Amino acid sequence: MTEHKKDTDDHLLVGSVVKAFRVLEAFDRQHRGMGFSEISRVTGLEKSAAQRAAHTLWRLGYLDKAPGSGEYRLSLRCQDIGTRFAEASRIVDAVAPYITLLRRKTQASVNLTMLDRTETVFVQRHTTVDMLGNKLGVRARLPAYCTATGIAMLSRLPDAEVEAILAESDLKPHMPNTVWQVDEIMARIRMARQQRFAFGIEEDIASDITLACGFTDPATGDVAAIGLSYFSGTTTAAEVQAQGRDLLISVVDNLARELVDG
């Protein structure tokens, strides 16, 4: 897991690099293109610092300038960072044939997620036509405490670490079915450990039923999960478990053995 420290506690931390990443992370759907003033406002950096960071990122090829306005925007080179992560990840490499198997054997959208402290990060998504209408397509991260994949991953951690993660989380209901009280979340995690899977119905995304199993890469400590997501308008919770539970557990067992042997 990532170790979090205050900037003032780390004498090896390079402030200019921190500022550059703050600029990169400021670009999103609401901020597709920005000039120096807006970058300064969004990041909280002084305008001169924002200007230097943006100019450096442009010179390195991670930002482009829009013709005419001169606003900065993310370049295609940023995509290379995510691609390199996938190429270097043992989990992404090992899971590929199992994703193909699950897509062939089920009618589910198949997701590979990884745990980034309080959040579930979608590393791979293979979406069915039924699920194209939900809002997940534009969201790479969701709170771990209220997703089946998140609960499956949290179940791989000791209670003390889970409690620390929940203490850092912004616990609140996102949907009527969201489980967001600490005691109830811990009960779900204990059940996931016992049953070896987690299950969620419209707790974070409308019309979604998700079955998930978590696993750990023993070489890196990375925690991940494979999730099978179904459109609730065409199936039931009982049908989802009957179709996917044993298959998903078997897949994750085989995957875990490969990661140990690899």
Largest sheet: 6 strands, antiparallel
- Counting DSSP E segments of at least 2 residues, the number of strands comes to 8
Whole-number count of domains: 2
Rg of Cα set = 20 Å
Oligomer: single chain
Mean pLDDT metric: 92
Q: Could you tell me the CATH topology label of the largest domain.
A: Beta-Lactamase
CATH class of the largest domain: Alpha Beta
Using the alpha-carbon principal axes, give the shape.
globular
- Report the end-to-end length measured between terminal Cα atoms: 20 Å
What share of the residues lie within helices?
40-55%
> Which stretches are poorly predicted, pLDDT < 50 over at least 5 residues?
none
Structural class, by secondary structure, is alpha+beta
What proportion strand?
15-25%
CATH homologous superfamily annotation of the largest domain: GAF domain
List the helices and strands in order. Answer: HHHEEHHEEEHHHEEEH
- Strands of the largest sheet, in order across it? 5-4-3-8-7-6
Name the CATH architecture of the largest domain: 2-Layer Sandwich
Task: Tell me the number of helical segments per DSSP (H or I, 4 or more residues long).
Answer: 9
Brief overview, please?
Helix content is 45%, strand content 18%. With 262 residues, the chain is α+β, with helices and mostly antiparallel strands.
